[in-house]
Amino acid sequence: MPVSSRALVELVLLGPTNDRRQLQDSPILGDVWIAYAMKPAEPHDLLITPHKEHGAGRVALRIAKRLNNFSVRREGAQGSEIAYLQGLVAAKLYFGELLRVVVPMTQWWKERKVEEALQTYSDGKRLKERIAALIKWTKAKNEDAQLEAAKGFAEFSALDRYASLAAVILWASTKKNRRSVVGAGDALAASKGPNEIVQSFLKTLDIIRIDSDSNKSEVPSQIWQISLNRRAMPALGRSVPAVKGDAARTLFRVKCDTIRWAVLDSGIEGSHPAFMIDEKNSRVVKAFDFRNIRDLLTAIEMKPQSFRELLEGLGENAGKKVSLKEATRIQKALVEDAENDRPIHWELLENYISVDPKTAKPESGHGTHVAGIIGAAAKEGSEFADGMCPDIRLYDFRVLGKSVPDTEFAIIAALQFLRYLNERHTYQTIHGANLSLSIPHDVRNFACGRTPICNESERLVESGVVVVAAAGNLGYQRFETKDGSYEGYTAFSITDPGNADGVITVGATHRYRPHTYGVSFFSSRGPTGDGRLKPDLVAPGERIESCLLDKSWGELDGTSMAAPHVSGAAAMLMARYDELIGEPQRIKQILCESATDLGRERSFQGHGMLDVLRAFQSI
Questions:
Q1: d(Cα 283, Cα 275) in Å, to the nearest integer?
Q2: Backbone angles phi, psi at 92, to 5 degrees
Q3: Which runs of consecutive H residues, i.e. helices, occur in 243-365?
Q4: Which domains does the chain have, with CATH numbers?
Q5: d(Cα 60, Cα 299) in Å, to the nearest integer?
Q6: Residue 323 and residue 20: Cα distance in Å, rounded?
Q7: What is the pLDDT of residue 153?
Q8: In this predicted structure, what is the pLDDT of residue 124?
């Protein structure tokens, strides 16, 4: 029967279906194993979390140095795209590089019990038995035979699971196999026995021991864990009156022209008439393109000439000449920051991530639509209506594109840069951030709400910024079972960064008949995986009219459209009551406690539907 590489990884990591536990305690998280198992011969983009006592910059430099010293890659470390942020390192590595370079730098590898246990594999006997069990499972001709073969996995120790899975993927990644098979499961099913697989892994263990002997002076336990650099996806006028935004604006005479809101999305068309103050000035104050931030931060491993050429093509500097002296100065500063565990000097890079909000056209209209819900100002005589705050100022953070393989890293970089913008002044430059994007949470990897992007969102909230996120659009899905496929509603489907506790997580409802239609069928349901109430509330997210590219207007659906209604409400509260500026938890409490109960399950609706007028009246 066909062999799924994902099923193979889940069997090894979690055990048989009747004994599902996390039995593999290595620092390589589940999504990483699955990615390499499905495409073992390809490099994968990883997020590496340093141990708490080690700075990300130094760890990034150490990984780059080890790659070069060990000649793991023919051209050295070039192509690994090593970059770092505060508390995080990104690197694109082949599986062999992960095993030989990164894993030996982890706290787990340095533990005495792991080192001692690995010696039991030196004769190959124990590992052959484990690999033979895996081969038997992959060659099973029917489901009953697979279930019978799976019983043998109960005897696997945690290290057995690491060693056997690593051995299979490493073998599947060799030149002999990479052309004939797609995944590790197929490779194993086609194998002639465990001998070749075991010998490949033992050879790598020997190389690691030699590397360790030659680097005894190296600081131990530099890395805590390794996860995938996950991809984000967009979480795709009568809605403003539905949440009573127009009524609150009129009755309380709310002016939002002093409030600034960041939109982390695909970009805002700043020249759209709905954002223009006059013929020259746009309410989109600044735009920053983070889709190339990974390239900029790989300066620690680039040649000065290559770095100079990169700078000449980015941001406001695109098309302008950059002297080799200036490029060398910036590169030297970035490397020194890394070596001395200092945060990135964003002022060095700001010119190369800044773009003109009026002339730099986004690749997608998603961000423009989201921004329009927050702050579109319809022109007199127009058939379209105003957004929530038609005079608000917007900051455009471009983190989503048609093809951005390292989106999570880009979003985290944008969140850290946003904090930098606020911290460089005595006043708050940006008051809130809207993230109408969605990254599914994999329960194998992190505690719910504790992924890298959730942690960074929490830090932003703690710094005084309101963070609003879409709940996600995974509320109704198609499922595949042994009896066929069926469609149904899904619980525990809130996505990141909506799983973060301090974030205001927004589900979707009908744009003007919420009591009739309730929560939108596509809106992700709570609670979170660890039992917290999410979403926090719901807002209109079906057929919402707003701005699109080329100065047009149109309708889109999704929790992406619900979240900016809440961003607008939070901005209005701060505009009317300036003592709420810098108090995101208080604003969240006001919006949740004043929401209108739609009579639906709390796991569907949270506290209910956004009610801006009631929020104002409650203060």
A1: 5
A2: -100, 110
A3: 245-251, 293-297, 304-311, 324-339, 346-353
A4: 5-228 (no CATH), 233-282+357-471+491-511+526-617 (3.40.50.200), 292-354 (no CATH)
A5: 11
A6: 58
A7: 66
A8: 81
Residue 22's closest CA among 601, 390, 443? 443
Strand 83-85 versus strand 88-93 pairing type: antiparallel
Answer yes or no: are the C-beta atoms of 156 and 150 closer than 8 Å. Answer: no
Biggest alpha carbon–alpha carbon distance for the chain: 83
Please spell the DSSP secondary structure of 364-418, one letter per residue.
-SHHHHHHHHHH--PPTT-SSPP-S-TT-EEEEEE---SS-TTHHHHHHHHHHHH
- Asked if 525 and 603 touch (Cβ cutoff 8 Å), the reply is yes
Dihedral sign, Cα of residue 78, residue 80, residue 86, residue 87: negative
Residue 289 corresponds to which tokens in the numbers above? 């393109």
What tokens does 164 get?
A: 């056997």
Question: Do residues 536 and 588 touch, judged by C-beta distance below 8 A?
Answer: yes
Peptide bond just before 497 cis, omega within 30 deg: yes
Q: Which DSSP symbol is given to 286?
A: E
CA angle 113, 114, 116 (to 5 degrees): 65
Instruction: Give pLDDT, residue 19.
Output: 47
Peptide bond before 40: cis, by omega within 30 degrees of 0? no
Number of helices (H) and strands (E) in the chain: give both, helices first: 26, 18
Burial of 396 (0-12, 13-18, 19+ CB in 10 A): buried
- Residue 267 is predicted with a pLDDT of 96
Cα(56)–Cα(340) distance, integer angstroms: 10
pLDDT value for 569: 97
Residues of the chain below pLDDT 50 = 1, 18-23, 72, 74-77, 237
The pair of three-digit structure tokens given for residue 62, joined into one six-digit string: 């150490």
349: tokens are: 């890079």
448, 480 contact by CB (below 8 A): no
Of 396, 356, 368, residue with least CA distance to 272: 368
Contact present, 368 and 263 (Cβ < 8 Å):
no
In 3D, which of 233, 344, 247, 258 has the Cα closest to residue 296?
344
Beta bridge partners, 423, equal none
Exposure class string for 212-249: b at 16+ Cβ within 10 A, else e: eeeeeeeeebbbbbbbbbbebbbbbbebbebbbbbebb
Q: What is the CA radius of gyration of the chain?
A: 26
| Contact yes or no for 183/39 (Cβ under 8 A) | yes
Torsion of CA 517, 522, 527, 533, to 10 degrees: -50
Backbone angles phi, psi at 194, to 5 degrees: -85, -15
* Residue 271 burial by Cβ neighbours in a 10 Å radius (0-12, 13-18, 19+): middle
Mode of pairing for the β-strands spanning 432-435 and 466-470: parallel
Indicate the burial class of 346 (C-beta count within 10 angstroms; 0-12, 13-18, 19 or more): middle
Distance (Å, whole) CA 263 – CA 401: 14
